[in-house]
Amino acid sequence: MPLSKSVGRILSGKLTRVTLDRFIAAHASSLRTLDIGAQNGPYAVHFPRRTALDIKRGMGVQIIGDAQSLGIADSSFEVVLCTEVLEHLPEPQRAIDEIFRVLAPGGQLLLTTRFLFPIHDAPHDYFRFTKYGLRHLLRRFEILELEEETDAVGTLAVLLQRLGMQAETLHRQPFRAIWLLSAQAIRPFSFLITSEFGDSRRLQRERGIMTSGYHVACRKPGR
Fold first, then answer.
1. Contact partners, residue 139, CB within 8 Å, separation at least 6
2. In this predicted model, what pLDDT tens digit does every residue of 42-74 receive, in sequence order?
């Protein structure tokens, strides 16, 4: 049977959204903020002095522009918000360098991006980033926080949910409930993972070997 609309909304509510929203809210700011990839401004309430930039027109978008070539004067903003954009850019280092340029000394970049996650917004989906790759891209910044969005089991839940959202099962729409319910069912079992390693021989202990993405707060040096 098809899912009821209310149950369907609960099951298909993006699992990644809870921690992402919490991260952004924790870094709310009244300073001059450039919101890159702003779309319809889901985080506008947290940044009252926000300038919204996107590659295409949208509600509340003030600047049509490319994150890889911002066309904005140096040191123009004290905060840059860049959520779920980096993986969609063919030249992510150029975008990071542009963000560094338009930030004032001491300014902060709030960045979220994907690691273990399905193709989305195709065909403009180019990269996935490990925490080590992000540290390399952000090497000119002082990294204040770099946290995993989900743990290993939470990542499996996200992937199961995305199967329900993005795949067809046996050509029957009602069967999407199998994946959505499985995603919810697996979430409480994170406690089963007691150690993680960065190699298959288990020689190097590692934290967060599987995550759907990362949340990063970093500062431009100079103040």
1. none
2. 899 999 999 999 998 888 899 999 999 999 999
